[in-house]
């Protein structure tokens, strides 16, 4: 036995300011009890370091700062047995020493809050000696370190420092993420950035829409219709009277404005109403159904504990008609019709805050008899009665704040009997009272400025927020949605969607959702409807055309195509199977009779109609595009014609019926977004 | 060295995918081609060629970026690096093997109603220096001065082609004569002449694009890289071709006869060989002197003294004292810097090597008798000293004094194999002895296909002649 020549193992570039372990392998020959590492400058081959260690391990550590960064070296090993017999030099391996590169996020710090569903992540690769980059990737993880998304390899030929950016989409609201970048230099130096934790918190806009699904089982598709519902108000005053084009005049108790669609108010809310009060009466209601909600009304009395007449408003909450909440605002001196007040209610859980704020105190000042420009008007709130006016003495109030959660969400809001300048209902309960009109934001539930309109969900605001709409679909009980339709939105007409979804198998229950996409790519709440899909017949569709085959449809012998090689080594009882690549697809033939487009209705064979249908069919299957085949068995294939189709005339019907024979091969899965896009069956960019 | 995953998957059923990276000339990845590579691509490695690796790749152009034009994927300014990924279907482990970096050459495209494929040749990086694609020297003659350090010259030479990563061992000899590369020559021409200085060395690019100049592995004390644990699971068939014709046990090597303009018969005075040469009035570097020893020779350290010039010692390149034969025509060269005469041997460098191992079946005095071959001319003209001739003769004996068993294995592809590795295999033999023997891998050819196999050419390793 002798010493076999060791094999030095390759060495990626490393930072010489750190300890580094060099490895070799040795098999056969005498037991290795000692090894010597020799490192040379690769340019000159001058030995710069040599060291011998007695160890059974096939490795040796080089202390930090032994070598110099920015230098090209080579090394080899010698091994020794117990009798100090030396092996030949191992193979020689070259390597570089470089200062450890840095990979840093340029727009993200630990714990940062991202206020968006997408984040354009910036990363910089830098290396002191300018070592070139091979590739860099940015990886997004869940908090449990599960890889969620990756940029894949990003390349750059530039000299460091190099900046990269990558857009991550689909970040979920109120969720924590981790992100890390890793760079590999051309000399194999691997550098990780810090793992950064960040939080995604954004406002999830809610739009209201109706989603109607209709199973067109005889036609081979599901009709999907949708229209965004705007929270427009309605009134019994027709036409609505506006004062100075900025206020709605609903000054008598029998008059109202109400909003009952396109929004919902959840458990915590703030209500702000700017009013010119004209009537001491119930002036607002908000409820989910009759007897389940709140009423708000002005009260004028000498409150308990007070000696003079005061005005205030009270909030009463009912569940099933039973009083559960009673709250009062502050007291103010009695109001006049020229007062301008802000009514403010905040509810957080069972805590209520009610404030009546007199913004300006009105005063009638002159009477211009007979000329006509008098500003005197009948003051419905005056304390000067035509007769003797008296005020009741209030009793000691019993404030209630029982749990009202069961009545939410509230979907109706009504105003009565005053002049209204502005209304805002929001789920943002962090605000304090403000006399300024709020602007629409993602937390706004209902907002009306009464500027010649009573729209609570201004379509202009909706349009300014919306960038698009998507229709998504998934099989019932599954998690992943697939986008089947998307459109950008720039006008009110764009909010209406009417599509046919023919890429669905029969006999399965599916869910469709309309999803608002706001500026920045943020997805709003899904509006979801379910449908059991039934298809009566065999259909071929490509988004533009649907052909129904319903007579003598014969599926051939289906083949699941996989490429498996079988190699039989001499020494094995069983063969080794080799599957090259990912080939795995289905192919089959389909034969059917064409009776013409109108046969199903007329039950008569129209030869011209048959020919026309056959021509169209031929064009359909030979245009090089993919199509979807569905049948009533629940089969569905995305395929392409792979053999020239044949047409034959049926003699039994005087050559009036055409039998088509089609051979196809699978091109993808109906529930795979990428497959459907690649096949041109869905023209959507993102999931 | 294979990783454990690579080793394991070699013995199991697997799913194979190929990944191709496009690299720029700085070896940076610029793009990845995945999912477009057709099966049927091939790659090969040959230990006996400086153009060590080559491949053919067929792929499906998926968009206009595959058009052959500047700025696109397939262009003159790209390398391709091929990886094969094997997924072990039993364990789901994935092993990735680097099959090397290649220059893209001669892409061809077939486009018809039923076909749209592109085939590119991947040629070894050496082609960047051979003139096949690049490597032609600027339009003037280049001279590498004699006595230059071979290693330094190689480093400078490959730098001309833009290669900066290398493992270049020291050559025991310096450049013997001026190397002149005429107009139209290539970088490779320089390298080839440098390589020929010592036949025991090889040059090639490894799978990472690193240029190597080092000793050709001969198997002596090399680790066995693959044994029957692999072959039992992968060997499909083998063939052996035995060559009796080329078994030689006496090798005579003749180098290039020196053209001597300065000659004299030598006489001896004390420890000096005295030469009288009218044409030599002064000594200068590399001047060659021819002389014939007298009937007796100096057995100790001798000097040479020409005319009345100073005398200098006569030494071998390694500093040892040469042993001279009487009445023999020798050549020496004056080394000005070191102030000695380099002994270059006979005027025609000559050496003989014989199989004198009594245990050898080809022992010169054994049953086989003498089988002589005389080698001269061609590459042997690069031999300029008798010591070099002796090294070459010993090397040729190593190569020729054995049964020229040429074994070809066909097996399930083992992608991590490389040439010049020692393997150990028990070739199945139902009708005879099954003995475990060692071989050196000389070439590998692999087809990337579901039924693709690997063909491995082996040279038998004879431990009787372990070392050169």
Describe the fold and architecture.
Chain A is mainly β and about 675 residues long. Chain A is about 5% helix and about 45% strand. Chain A is built from four helices and 47 strands. In chain A, the strands form nine sheets. An eight-stranded antiparallel sheet of chain A has the order 19-22-31-24-25-26-27-30, with no helix packed on it. In chain A, a hairpin with a 2-residue loop joins strand 28 and strand 29 (about 350-360). Chain A starts with 6 loop residues before the first strand and ends in a 9-residue tail after the last helix. Mean pLDDT of chain A is about 90; it is low at about 365-370. Chain B has five domains: about 5-125, Thrombin, subunit H (Beta Barrel); about 140-215, Baseplate protein-like domains (Phage tail protein beta-alpha-beta fold); about 225-245 and about 405-460, Elongation Factor Tu (Ef-tu), domain 3 (Beta Barrel), CATH 2.40.30.150; about 250-255 and about 350-400, no CATH class; about 265-345, no CATH class. The model of chain B has no long low-confidence stretch (mean pLDDT about 85). Chain B has helices at about 5-10, 125-130, 150-160, 185-195, 230-235, 385-400, and strands spanning about 15-25, 30-35, 40-45, 55-60, 80-90, 95-110, 115-125, 140-145, 165-170, 180, 200-205, 210-215, 225, 235-240, 250-255, 265, 265-270, 270-275, 290, 305, 310-315, 330-335, 340-345, 350-355, 370-375, 405-410, 420-425, 435-450, 455-460. Chain B is about 10% helix and about 40% strand. By secondary structure, chain B is mainly beta. In chain B, a hairpin with a 6-residue loop joins strand 3 and strand 4 (about 55-60). Chain B is globular and about 85 Å long. Chains A and B meet through strand 11, strand 43 and strand 44 of A and strand 1, strand 2, strand 9, helix 5 and strand 14 of B.
């Amino acid at each position: 036995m002798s010493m076999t020549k060791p094999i030095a193992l390759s060495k990626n570039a490393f930072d010489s300011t750190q300890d580094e372990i060099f490895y070799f392998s040795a098999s056969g020959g005498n037991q290795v009890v000692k090894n010597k590492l020799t490192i040379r400058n690769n340019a000159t081959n001058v030995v710069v370091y040599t060291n011998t260690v007695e160890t059974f391990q096939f490795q040796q550590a080089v202390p930090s700062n032994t070598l110099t960064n920015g230098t090209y070296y080579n090394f080899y090993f010698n091994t020794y047995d117990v009798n100090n017999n030396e092996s030949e030099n191992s193979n020689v391996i070259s390597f570089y020493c470089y200062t450890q590169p840095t990979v840093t996020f340029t727009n993200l710090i630990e714990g940062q809050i991202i206020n968006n569903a997408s984040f354009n992540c910036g990363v910089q690769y830098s290396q002191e000696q300018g070592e070139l980059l091979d590739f860099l990737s940015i990886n997004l993880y869940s908090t449990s370190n599960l890889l969620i998304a990756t940029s894949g390899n990003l390349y750059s030929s530039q000299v460091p420092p190099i900046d990269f950016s990558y857009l991550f989409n689909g970040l979920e609201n109120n969720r924590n993420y981790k992100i890390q970048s890793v760079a590999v230099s051309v000399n194999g130096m691997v550098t990780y950035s810090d793992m950064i934790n960040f939080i995604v918190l954004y406002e999830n806009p809610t739009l209201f829409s109706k989603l109607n699904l209709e199973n067109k089982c005889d036609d081979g598709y599901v009709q999907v219709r949708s229209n965004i519902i705007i929270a427009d108000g309605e009134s019994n005053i027709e036409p609505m009277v506006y004062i100075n084009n900025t206020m709605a005049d609903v000054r008598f108790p029998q008059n109202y404005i109400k909003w009952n669609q396109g929004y919902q108010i959840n458990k915590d809310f703030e209500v702000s109403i700017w009013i010119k009060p004209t009537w001491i009466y119930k002036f607002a209601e908000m409820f989910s159904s009759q007897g389940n909600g709140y009423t708000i009304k002005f009260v004028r009395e000498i409150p308990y504990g007070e000696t003079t007449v005061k005005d205030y408003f009270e909030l009463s909450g009912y569940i099933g008609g039973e009083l559960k909440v009673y709250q009062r605002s502050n007291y103010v001196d009695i109001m006049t019709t020229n007062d301008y007040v802000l009514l403010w209610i905040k509810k957080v859980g069972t805590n209520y805050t009610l404030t009546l704020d007199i913004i300006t105190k009105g005063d009638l000042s002159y009477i211009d008899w007979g000329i006509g420009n008098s500003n005197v008007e009948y003051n419905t709130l005056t304390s000067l009665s035509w007769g003797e006016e008296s005020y009741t003495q209030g009793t000691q109030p019993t404030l209630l704040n029982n749990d009202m959660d069961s009545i939410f969400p509230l979907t109706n809001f009504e105003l009565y009997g005053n002049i209204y300048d502005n209304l805002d209902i929001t789920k943002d309960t962090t605000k304090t009272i403000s006399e300024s009109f709020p602007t629409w934001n993602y937390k706004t539930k209902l907002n009306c400025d009464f500027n010649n309109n009573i729209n609570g969900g201004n379509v202009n605001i909706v349009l300014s927020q919306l960038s698009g709409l998507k229709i998504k679909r998934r099989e019932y009980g599954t998690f992943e949605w697939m986008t089947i339709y998307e459109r950008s939105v720039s006008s009110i007409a764009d909010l209406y969607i009417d599509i046919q979804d023919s890429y669905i198998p029969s006999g399965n229950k599916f869910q469709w959702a309309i999803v608002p996409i706001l500026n920045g790519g943020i997805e709003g709440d899904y509006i979801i409807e379910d449908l059991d899909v039934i298809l009566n017949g065999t259909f071929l569709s490509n988004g533009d055309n649907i052909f129904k085959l319903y007579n003598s449809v014969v599926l051939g012998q289906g083949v699941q195509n996989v490429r498996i090689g079988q190699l039989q080594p001499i020494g094995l009882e069983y063969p080794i199977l080799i599957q090259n690549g990912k080939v795995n697809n289905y192919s089959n033939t389909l034969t059917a009779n064409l009776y013409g487009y109108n046969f199903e209705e007329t039950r008569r064979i129209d030869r011209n109609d048959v020919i026309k249908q056959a021509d169209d069919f031929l064009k359909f299957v030979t245009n090089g595009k993919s199509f979807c085949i569905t049948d009533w068995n629940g089969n569905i294939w995305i395929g392409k014609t792979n053999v020239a189709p044949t047409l034959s005339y049926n003699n039994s019907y005087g050559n009036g019926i055409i039998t088509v024979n089609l051979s196809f091969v699978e091109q993808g899965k109906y529930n795979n977004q990428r497959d459907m896009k690649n096949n041109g069956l869905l023209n959507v960019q993102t999931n | 060295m294979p990783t454990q995953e690579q080793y394991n998957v070699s013995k199991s059923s697997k799913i194979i995918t190929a990944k191709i990276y496009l690299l720029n000339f700085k070896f940076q990845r610029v793009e990845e081609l995945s999912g477009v590579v057709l099966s049927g691509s091939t790659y090969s490695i040959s230990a006996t060629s400086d153009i060590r690796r080559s491949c053919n790749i067929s792929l499906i152009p998926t968009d206009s970026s595959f058009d052959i034009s500047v700025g696109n994927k397939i262009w003159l300014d790209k390398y391709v690096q091929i990886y094969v990924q094997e997924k072990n279907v039993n364990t789901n482990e994935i092993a990735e093997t680097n099959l090397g970096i290649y220059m893209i050459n001669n892409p061809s495209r077939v486009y018809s109603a039923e076909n749209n494929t592109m085939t590119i040749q991947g040629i070894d990086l050496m082609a960047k220096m051979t003139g096949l694609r690049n490597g032609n020297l600027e339009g003037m003659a280049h001279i590498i001065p004699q006595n230059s350090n071979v290693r330094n010259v190689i480093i400078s030479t490959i730098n001309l082609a833009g290669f900066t990563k290398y493992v270049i061992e020291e050559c025991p000899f310096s450049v013997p004569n001026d190397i002149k590369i005429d107009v139209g020559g290539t970088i490779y021409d320089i390298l080839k002449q440098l390589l020929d200085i010592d036949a025991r060395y090889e040059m090639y690019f490894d799978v990472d694009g690193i240029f190597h100049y080092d000793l050709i592995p001969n198997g002596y004390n090399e680790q066995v890289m693959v044994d029957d644990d692999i072959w039992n699971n992968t060997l499909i068939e083998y063939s052996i071709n035995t060559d009796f014709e080329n078994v030689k046990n006496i090798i005579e090597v003749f180098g290039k006869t020196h053209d001597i303009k300065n000659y004299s018969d030598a006489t001896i005075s004390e420890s000096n060989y005295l030469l009288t040469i009218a044409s030599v009035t002064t000594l200068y570097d590399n001047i060659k002197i021819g002389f014939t020893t007298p009937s007796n020779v100096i057995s100790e350290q001798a000097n040479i003294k020409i005319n009345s010039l100073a005398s200098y010692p006569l030494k071998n390149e390694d500093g040892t004292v040469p042993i001279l034969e009487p009445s023999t025509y020798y050549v020496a060269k004056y080394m000005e810097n070191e102030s000695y005469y380099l002994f270059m041997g006979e005027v025609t460098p000559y050496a003989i090597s014989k199989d004198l191992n009594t245990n050898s079946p080809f022992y010169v005095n054994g049953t086989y008798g003498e089988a002589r071959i005389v080698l001269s001319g061609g590459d042997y003209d690069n031999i300029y000293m008798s010591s070099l001739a002796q090294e070459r003769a010993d090397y040729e004996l190593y190569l020729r004094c054995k049964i020229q068993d040429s074994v070809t294995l066909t097996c399930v592809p083992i992608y991590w194999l490389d040439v010049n590795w020692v393997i150990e295999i028990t070739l199945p033999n139902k009708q005879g002895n099954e003995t475990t023997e060692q071989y050196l891998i000389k070439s590998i050819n692999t087809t990337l296909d579901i039924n693709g196999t690997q063909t491995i050419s082996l040279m038998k390793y004879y431990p009787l002649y372990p070392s050169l």
